[in-house]
């Protein structure tokens, strides 16, 4: 699935292969022309040596058929959108949207774009922008104790370099039971409107209220909050919101949060135990070191642990290079870590539907995983086998040559038994 002619600056490599018996090579290639296709996003082959026709795009206004594929793709579409359809009208499995004050209209638009997808509503738990709040100003004055304050009694502002004046965002005291209950009621309201789940944002495993962040992230240190209080309160808040959603009749809907981090694996898993899933934001890029807590190994370990627990995990790979090579490296790593239908992948630079690029290998159908990932030899390469193929990832900075243990088709549909 990836070319062997990698640019000199590429630091990592990954391979996804399709297994076949050499005698049935043409028959397997022929399956590419049969919808839904073995690789729905690849140009279909016809006869050996003959040019492939271009894939027929859906007519304007039509929704592309959902392909049979191994991966699950999540679309983060935060902010205001005129449409949630991505380029090429590909179908995603999970959509996370910002309802703001248009909750029902936003849900309707997301459902129209992706009828089969689960739609999650974004809900910020850390701070409030009064200008965009669904509540009246008098409401917030009645609950001044929910806000964080500095030594002079002024409300703490967060993200101070980006939000000021009428657009200021004010930090909330997540340890306050009243604030937690407000969030629980708000989550239940959104679920009652028909959302499949709620994504709670800014649930921090590394508390921002530290001296080093004053002036660049927060306006001052809050007198009510310490990192120790924060971590305990975050877990309590997640548990309370999940409990309130269940009591409201939505036990079958999902509460997830943003986000778990490799740097704080234990705290991430403690938070995760309270709800149904989480995002891993900035999960992986080609700049990640191979080893270490923050390296490829640490990020993979946390993703695999979270997925193995049956939780919904959205692995959000923020692009460092924004290249097909990086997309394939992060996507192949996702396939190594995936726990199945509840593990989804996203790659890109901005959480905007119109800027989400679709790579053809997202639609590859490798079937189900036949086991977990494992080392392939002693050179740092990792492998995972699937019913219809295999995935190999080399997170090291140096190239490695690997015997595939059989004959496979690579991304150019050429038979290979050894790869570098």
Could you please describe the fold and organization of this structure?
The chain has 420 residues and is an alpha/beta fold. 23% of the residues lie in helices and 20% in strands. The chain has helices at 25-30, 103-113, 137-142, 177-192, 227-247, 265-272, 296-308, 324-337; strands spanning 13-19, 74-77, 94-97, 118-124, 127-129, 157-158, 169-171, 197-201, 254-258, 277-280, 312-318, 343-348, 374-375, 382-386, 389-394, 402-409, 415-419. An eight-stranded parallel sheet has the order 2-3-4-8-9-10-11-12, covered by helices on one side. Residues 1-12 and 18-64 have low confidence and may be disordered.
Query: How many DSSP helices?
Result: 8
Query: Mind summarizing the main beta sheet?
Result: 8 strands, parallel
Q: Give the integer mean of the pLDDT values.
A: 84
Largest sheet strand order: 2-3-4-8-9-10-11-12
Percent helix among the residues? Answer: 10-25%
Which quaternary structure do these chains form?
single chain
Order of helices and strands: EHEEHEEHEEHEHEHEHEHEEEEEE
Per the principal axes of the C-alpha atoms, what is the gross shape? globular
- Radius of gyration in whole Å, from Cα? 23 Å
What's the β-strand tally? 17
Runs in which pLDDT lies below 50 for 5 or more consecutive residues are 1-12, 18-64
Structural class call reads: alpha/beta
Q: What is the strand content? A: 15-25%
- Spatial separation of the terminal alpha carbons: 13 Å
């Amino acid at each position: 699935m990836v070319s062997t002619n990698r640019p000199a600056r590429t630091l990592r490599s990954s391979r996804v292969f399709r297994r076949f018996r050499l005698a049935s090579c043409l028959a397997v290639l022929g399956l590419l022309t049969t919808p839904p296709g073995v690789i729905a996003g690849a140009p279909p082959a016809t006869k050996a040596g003959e040019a492939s026709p271009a894939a027929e795009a859906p007519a304007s206004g039509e929704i592309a058929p959902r392909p049979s594929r191994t991966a699950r793709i999540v679309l983060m579409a935060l902010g205001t959108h005129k449409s949630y359809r991505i380029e090429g009208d590909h179908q995603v499995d999970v959509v996370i949207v910002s309802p703001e004050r248009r909750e029902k209209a936003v849900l309707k638009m997301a459902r129209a774009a992706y009828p089969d997808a689960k739609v999650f509503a974004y809900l910020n738990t850390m701070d409030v922008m009064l200008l965009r709040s669904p509540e009246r100003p008098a409401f917030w004055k009645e609950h001044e104790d929910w806000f964080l304050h500095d030594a002079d009694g002024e409300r703490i502002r967060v993200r101070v370099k980006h939000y000021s004046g009428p657009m200021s965002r004010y930090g909330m005291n997540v340890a306050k039971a009243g604030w937690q209950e407000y969030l629980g009621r708000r989550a239940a309201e959104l679920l009652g409107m028909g959302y499949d789940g709620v994504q709670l944002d800014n649930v921090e495993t590394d508390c921002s209220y530290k001296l080093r962040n004053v002036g660049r992230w927060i306006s001052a240190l809050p007198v009510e909050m310490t990192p120790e209080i924060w971590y305990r309160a975050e877990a309590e808040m997640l548990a309370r919101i999940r409990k309130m959603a269940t009591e409201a009749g939505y036990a079958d809907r999902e509460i997830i949060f943003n986000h778990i981090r490799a740097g704080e694996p234990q705290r991430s898993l403690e938070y995760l135990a309270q709800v149904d899933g989480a995002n891993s934001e900035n999960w992986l890029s080609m700049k990640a070191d191979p080893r270490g807590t923050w390296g490829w190994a640490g990020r993979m370990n946390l993703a695999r642990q979270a997925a193995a627990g049956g939780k919904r995990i959205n692995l959000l790979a923020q692009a460092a290079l924004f290249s097909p090579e990086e997309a394939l490296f992060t996507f192949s790593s996702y396939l190594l870590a995936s726990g199945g239908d509840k593990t989804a992948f996203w790659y890109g630079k901005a959480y905007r539907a119109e800027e989400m690029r679709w790579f053809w290998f997202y639609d590859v159908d490798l079937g189900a995983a036949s086991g977990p990932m494992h080392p392939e030899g002693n050179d740092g390469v990792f492998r995972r086998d699937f019913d219809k193929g295999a995935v190999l990832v080399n997170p090291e900075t140096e190239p490695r040559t690997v015997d595939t243990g059989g004959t496979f088709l690579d991304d150019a549909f050429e038979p290979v038994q050894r790869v570098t």
